[in-house]
Design brief:
Length: 84
């Protein structure tokens, strides 16, 4: 019988993902790449980030993009902590 072995994210990928998230390069994408544990949060972050761009014409997109950016940074910090 196979055991459920939890796979830790690669720490190099976690650091690069955190840096790119801080720089604002597609927040959420790096959480999707990090592994299945963070995939759902990453998809939600990426979708809401992409939705926020057209919404910036009616000003609601700015706080939405900022919120997704902060959430993505927090998620990538958790990915980095799990990689240790």
């Amino acid at each position: 019988m196979a055991k459920n072995k939890t796979v830790k994210p690669d720490s190099t990928l976690a650091i690069v993902g955190l840096i790119l998230t801080i720089l604002g390069v597609l927040p959420g994408l790096w959480a999707i790449i990090a592994g299945p544990k963070y995939r759902t949060a990453g998809i939600i972050q990426l979708v809401f980030t992409l939705i926020s761009f057209p919404l910036m014409f009616v000003l609601i997109g700015f706080p939405l993009a900022f919120a997704m950016w902060i959430w993505a940074i927090v998620t990538m910090v958790h990915v980095y902590q799990d990689s240790q």
